[in-house]
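Sequence, please.
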């Protein structure tokens, strides 16, 4: 079912080696609104069981707005407080369906995860969701003292790319009790495979080197939390395994063989719940 185990490999070892010049010639505005919000919050660990959500989209076309809307609503329905959810998109303005903190620029994403590193503790649940177009790119990475050219996945954001190695580096500084990471962009398996280890579960719409199709994965995945049919053992709770299995069985493009969602975890996903 796409489940693989990577015991003993820490996120902290996954830093981007070499440099990548990002595309985009427009001036990217400073994330002033996000900075203002974070400065007003107490960025300390309280060692109580809190839930935090981070939603990132590099696009505000209709289908991506739908993705953000359902993701936001599902988090609220599963006990996440509005004040503990952070949303970035490529416009940075509040919508009628969900609040937006700022633009999804590299600076804003780095700022947000630096804040999460100070705030999230070992009692907490962290949920991260990314959506937009994705692709593959070649970079130089140092492995055991030797520099090699490798291909990695990226998420398109305002002014450039967010690389899977960068996401891993950000997450390596955040230490929740459980982290659930959902990536639906094309080639998102690279993100899930690289980050789905330790206390993090990595879920993707597609394999590392394959595209995802027609936006069916996120819609099926998030709607599963509202479908009693996903609760296979009828215990009144939906585990990550139940949600993932439901998605495999009901996602249209997955059933047709166009995409193969992946899940990577060192944990028992039968015992991981959002609520």
């Amino acid at each position: 079912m796409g489940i693989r185990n990577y015991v003993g490999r820490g996120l902290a070892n996954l830093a981007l080696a070499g440099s990548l010049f990002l595309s985009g010639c427009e001036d990217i505005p400073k994330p002033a609104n996000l900075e203002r919000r974070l400065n007003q919050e107490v960025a300390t660990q309280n060692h109580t069981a809190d839930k935090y959500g981070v939603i990132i989209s590099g696009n505000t076309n209709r289908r991506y707005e739908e993705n953000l809307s359902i993701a936001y609503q599902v988090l609220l329905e599963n006990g996440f407080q509005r004040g503990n959810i952070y949303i970035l998109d490529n416009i940075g303005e509040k919508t009628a369906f969900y609040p937006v903190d700022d633009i999804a620029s590299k600076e804003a994403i780095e700022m947000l995860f630096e804040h999460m590193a100070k705030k999230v503790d070992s009692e907490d649940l962290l949920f991260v969701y990314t959506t937009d177009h994705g692709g593959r790119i070649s970079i130089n990475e140092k492995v055991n003292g030797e520099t090699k050219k490798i291909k990695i996945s990226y998420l398109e954001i305002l002014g450039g790319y967010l690389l899977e190695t960068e996401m891993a580096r950000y997450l390596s500084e955040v230490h929740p009790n459980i982290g659930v990471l959902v990536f639906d962009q094309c080639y998102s398996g690279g993100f899930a495979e690289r980050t789905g280890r330790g206390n993090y579960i990595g879920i993707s719409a597609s394999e590392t080197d394959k595209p995802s199709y027609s936006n069916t994965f996120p819609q099926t995945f998030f709607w599963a939390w509202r479908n009693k049919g996903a609760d296979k053992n009828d215990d009144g709770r939906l585990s990550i395994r139940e949600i993932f299995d439901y998605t495999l069985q009901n996602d249209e493009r997955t059933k047709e063989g166009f995409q193969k969602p992946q899940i990577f975890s060192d944990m028992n996903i039968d015992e991981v719940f959002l609520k």
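Residues 47-271 form a domain with the Rossmann fold fold (CATH 3.40.50.1460).
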